[in-house]
Amino acid sequence: MRTVRQLLESKGSEVFSIGPDAAVIDAIRLMAEKGIGALVVLEPGGRLAGIVSERDYARKIVLEGRSSRDTPVRDIMTADAVTVGLDDDAPACMQLVTERRIRHLPVVVDGKLVGLVSIGDLVKAVIEEQQFELEHLQRYIKSEPAVGHRAP
């Protein structure tokens, strides 16, 4: 099973963030510019304050008729973000995102943000693992004589 550490090593650990006092419009612009669906929200000292996503924007700005220019990120972000560590494995993370109905997991070590994994990263890792196991089993089956069959 691939660990979060291995996922970050292969995809990189660059994380885009915004401060909690920034206007929501700035967060949306940054997400659009970077082609991403969420930003980590960091306090000035670098402490994880939460996460803000396009889903937060749709539900808490658009549907409530609020102004994205006048509303700070802290008012719509998810403050109690679910986090994982470097040694967590992809299936455990997949279970977390499925159960919690979330798409992004900040990776935190000793209180410091070190990366972010998305549901897409996890799906890719699980598929690669399953493909590896399938190929391994196919090679094993092809190399063994069939049960009850004697070699000449």
From TrEMBL:
Q: Keywords on this record?
A: CBS domain
Against InterPro entries, the record matches this protein to: CBS_dom (IPR000644), CBS_dom_sf (IPR046342), CBSX3_CBS_dom (IPR044725), Diverse_CBS-Domain (IPR051257)
Annotated ranges, domain CBS: 9-68, 77-132
Q: Which domain of life is it from?
A: Bacteria
Q: Does the entry feature the keyword NAD, yes or no?
A: no
Is Hydrolase one of the keywords UniProt gives this record?
A: no
* The protein, known as: CBS domain-containing protein
Question: What organism does the record attribute this protein to?
Answer: Luteimonas granuli
